[in-house]
Amino acid sequence: MARDSARKSRKELQFERKLSQRSGEKIGVKIGNFKLASPTMLASGILGISFELFPRIVECGAGAVVTKSIGLEPREGYSNPTIAAVEGGYLNAIGLANPGITFFKEELEVYERTAAKKVPLIISIFADSAAGFAQLAGELDPFTFLAIELNLSCPHVKNVGSEIGTDPNEASEIVREVKKRTSKPILAKMPAAITDVPEWARSVERSGADAIVAINTIRAMKIDIESRKPILSNKIGGLSGPAIRTVAIRCVYEIYETVRIPVIGVGGVSTPNDAIEFLLAGATAVQVGSSISDPCFLEIFRRINDGLLAYMKRFGFKEIKELIGAAHS
Predict the structure, then answer these.
(1) Is the CB of residue 128 less than 8 Å from the CB of residue 159?
(2) Known catalytic residues?
């Protein structure tokens, strides 16, 4: 009896996967010159550079996978503790730990030779100057992947991230220099601390960005009252999760009203309703990050996709593009 039930569950799961594949045309989106089978992505910084796990994530409904941010040189990052659960999400200061571009390219070469099924891959990069960003883009350009995400917005590492990306002129220069070195679409990830979102958005659009990712984590900290010391070893980290979603929604809404290039929403996406709200605000796609801590995280992408389809059916939308920016009308 239990065996029959297990067989039934597997059949149901196979049916759901076939249904999702047939529904791909309804929820597929276009960003720049590439298309995604669904509007959900794995956000950068989650699961590192786990090439072996990326195909499974896509099979479970993610339209693309964004890698951990890669720099010119290896970085060990900060010592523990680097992450803490807080009210409404997580506080983290990993310190942009990464193996460096040389090792990453070796891994990428192996993946391209051996992967039976190519993953829709977006590579995130960071540097402390426009020249550094451009060098990274140039070294990656020969490889096969969808796009480059510029991490202009890490809130807890000195001389990179928000310190370089908050200024519209510096962000604009980075986009321009990267465009000279790569043919890949460029996604500019916006710092959360931008005071004039429309100005920043216009600046990177004029410089050639193909899309804007909004937003990164918010600079924050937490203090342990027993030890009377900050929880994180770096003291200050980035706040992510549901606590920042309303800020991200506001930024997406403002960007959509300002520029013509697509917006990718990120910040506290864990349910279909979260994704729908981002789309209504103007996002073409969403990235899922902190909710990957859910024990059933691989199902999150499928749940969001199924929820989008159910919402579209309920309100009579034929294609997902009808949802994008609908809150502006």
Answers:
(1) yes
(2) 154
Consecutive 10-residue averages of pLDDT for the chain (329 residues): 41 49 74 95 82 89 95 85 88 85 93 81 94 97 96 62 76 97 97 94 98 94 95 91 96 98 96 98 95 76 96 95 95
Domains recognised in the chain with CATH numbers = 27-76+95-219+239-324 (3.20.20.70)
Number of CB atoms found within 10 A of residue 264's CB: 27
Phi–psi pair at 73, nearest 5 degrees: -120, 155
Q: Which residue has the tokens 């990267």?
A: 178
Decide if 164 contacts 216 (C-beta within 8 A).
no
Instruction: Say how far apart CA 95 and CA 90 lie, in whole Å.
Output: 15
Longest dimension (CA), the chain: 67
For residue 157, give the DSSP letter: S
